Write the structure tokens for this entry.
Amino acid sequence: MITFFLAGGWIMFVVLAIAIPLLIAAVKFARNASPHGLSIIRALTLALVFAAIAGVVADVASVCRHVVTRPDLAEHPFESVMYGLNEALAPAILAFPLATVAWILVAFGVRRMPHDD
């Protein structure tokens, strides 16, 4: 797990820093649903998605730069790029399942929310 986290780079800390409050807010929402709680969850989810996308883009750019500037990687560019893309997707692999769990909790909260008649 540490290797996976390190593969994604520094943005993994940002993703985690957004995902933890998102999960806490989702648990609170599942227990006591309110429109205000839902607005916070939406904002945190958007921030999480942007952080994941920014992380993947930055990591892909880093892979491309390293493959063309390092002769040892340029000898086998396909393998190097494939390995690099594997690491570059780490921010999305961390962010999207956590967002999924949060929104499953939101679904339970919405079910418990009072309805306007």
The two ends are 48 Å apart (CA to CA). The mean pLDDT is 92. The CA atoms of residues 42 and 50 lie 12 Å apart. The chain is about 85% helix and 0% strand.
